[in-house]
Structure formats: structure tokens, C-alpha cells
Amino acid sequence: MTLGVYPRAARPSPGVSDPRPRGQTRGVMAPPPIARRRALAGLLAATVAGTALVAGAFVGRPGGGPSPAGPVPPPGAPGSPKDWQRAVASTFSDYGGPLACGGVLARGQLGIASRTVPCGTLVTLAYRGRVVRVPVIDRGPYVDGRTWDLTGATASALRFPGLAELDWRIAST
Fold first, then answer.
1. Domains of the chain
2. Is residue 83 very low, low, confident or very high in pLDDT (cuts 50, 70, 90)?
């Protein structure tokens, strides 16, 4: 039997009751109920958010109170800072692989890859009203026309789809 494939439960004949819960067969564990899946997803999200705070990164929404990153007006809008730029970004998730700036990429690690910005430089990224401040931890992307590669955790914090334009600036210290 292949792991991860749950066989259909044997259905008793009409009028005969089966003592096993629906969806379970002998010797095979049934998938967890939807409520447990949601609880696990919430725990994972809280862990990622906690990792972001421990790592010293900031994840927030502009205009939702005091924010180290500040509100992010669209580029070109009246009063927008001239240091905001727009670029195409993608994501990478080579978990367990070595990073050009040292270390190994871990799940939940916030960071970005850049071909030109020095390692350790803090960069503020904004995508559809969400803002995150992360360090440069790797080199890349190696696809023409792309400026940034976001780790999976950074993409999740921004709700970034995987390949799109985002606004960025070098974070002031």
C-alpha cells in the first residue's frame, strides 16, 4: 500500500451497522479531522510569526499603528519617498541548502536573495499593503529581469504569490 493514500472504507450492507467510525479501515489511520488540520495550520502560522519577531524582522501593515517601516504610499504618488522602487521578484525554497552569506536555509527563515546588494543589508519590501523588513541572506535570482528572490516565509508574510512586482527600499537603520 502506498503511504499517504487512504483506502475507501468498506461499506456495510444496507441495514447492517459498522462499529468503526466512517472513513476508517482496520490497520490504516484515517486522515485527521478538518478542525485538527486548521489548528495545526494556526500553530504553524504562529510559529512563523514568532520566528519573525525573534529574528528581529518586522512584519506589519502600514497605517495600522506605529510601524518601524512606516506607511507605504504607491510609487509616484504625491508625497511618496523617492527611495521606493518597483521590481520583479520570485521565491525560492532550497531548504537545507547552503546560503551564499553563510548558514543554511531553514523553514520559516525570513530573508531575500540579491545579486548586487551586500549580505546582511536590511531591505523593506511592500506588497499589496503588507510590509516586511528582512536581511539579504543569499545570492540570486539568476533569471533575467528579476531583482529579488524571497524565502518561503518572507513570501508568506507578504502573501506574495510567487512571481510578481513588489515595492522595495533599503531600510534605514
1. 53-170 (2.40.40.10)
2. confident
CB atoms under 10 Å from CB of 160, counted, come to 21
Distance CA 87, CA 167 (A): 6
For residue 88, the SS3 value is strand
Distance (Å, whole) CA 82 – CA 20: 66
171 in Cβ contact with 133 (< 8 Å):
yes
Distance CA 5, CA 93 (A): 26
Tell me whether strands 58-60 and 148-151 are parallel, antiparallel or unpaired: unpaired
Q: With 90 as the cut, is the pLDDT of residue 56 above it?
A: no
Whether residue 141 has a cis bond before it, omega within 30° of 0 = yes
In which residue are the cell numbers 545579486 written? 115
Cβ contact 149:121 at 8 Å: no
With beta carbons less than 8 A apart as the criterion, state whether 151 and 109 touch.
Answer: yes
pLDDT tier, 165 (very low <50, low <70, confident <90, very high otherwise): very high
Record the cell numbers describing residue 165, joined without a space.
512586482
pLDDT confidence bin for 148, thresholds 50/70/90? very high
Percent of the chain exceeding pLDDT 70 equals 52
